[in-house]
Design goal:
Structural class: alpha/beta
Largest sheet: 6 strands, mixed
Distance between the termini: 15 Å
Strand order of the largest sheet: 2-1-3-6-4-5
CATH topology: Aminopeptidase
Number of strands: 6
Helix content: 40-55%
CATH superfamily: Zn-dependent exopeptidases
Number of domains: 1
């Protein structure tokens, strides 16, 4: 299967910033690179919307141009699956956990991935539906994974740890395998 992985944010957009100053864009890219390796080892063709810390559309593109560029990569590639990776943030520094979002046709995929993310030992915030741009306008099953809360000091430390990044990628990969068997 051809799979597009979208490491959230990048370049001029750092995404959320944690209490220790780490940036969402750094964590999402690191997990995406691990996930790409796992998916390629499983025989999938993998495309990343970005492989380095850069804007996807062009430097200093607007938020809508960035989102459209990510959607265009997936749609033009004829991908069978789209996975957007993010780190959540909340005003409440105690908020934590993982959650997986879908729009219309991604429920079973979101459910399978979230089921495996529970193995990370963080609060399972469940599967949720939203019309996020990258979910609504991609022409294939799509999910948006919130790996952990960067606004939570303990989870920010996890997001920065190579072991956690590898485990998160492995659990997403496991979730895809479960989904493919349904």
């Amino acid at each position: 299967m051809k799979i597009v992985i979208d490491p959230g944010h990048g370049g001029s957009d750092p995404g959320a910033i944690g209490p220790a100053g780490t940036q969402e864009k750094t964590h999402t890219l690191a997990v995406a690179l691990y996930l790409r390796t796992l998916l390629q080892e499983a025989g999938h063709q993998v495309i990343l919307t970005r492989e380095t810390d850069r804007d996807v559309a062009y430097p200093d593109a607007s938020a809508s141009e960035e989102l459209q560029a990510r959607v265009d990569i997936a749609n033009q590639a004829g991908a069978g699956l789209f996975i957007s990776l993010h780190a959540n943030a909340a005003d409440n520094s105690g908020a934590g956990g993982t959650e997986t979002w879908y729009y219309l046709d991604g429920y079973l995929l979101a459910e399978a991935v979230q089921g495996e993310l529970a193995n990370l030992g963080l609060t399972d915030r469940g599967v949720k539906q939203a019309n996020f741009y990258v979910l609504k306008y991609t022409e294939m099953p799509a999910i948006l994974v919130e790996l952990a809360f960067i606004s939570n000091s303990a989870e920010e430390r996890l997001l920065a740890a190579e072991e956690f990044r590898e485990r998160a990628a492995r659990e997403i990969n496991n979730g895809l395998a479960v989904w493919q068997q349904t």
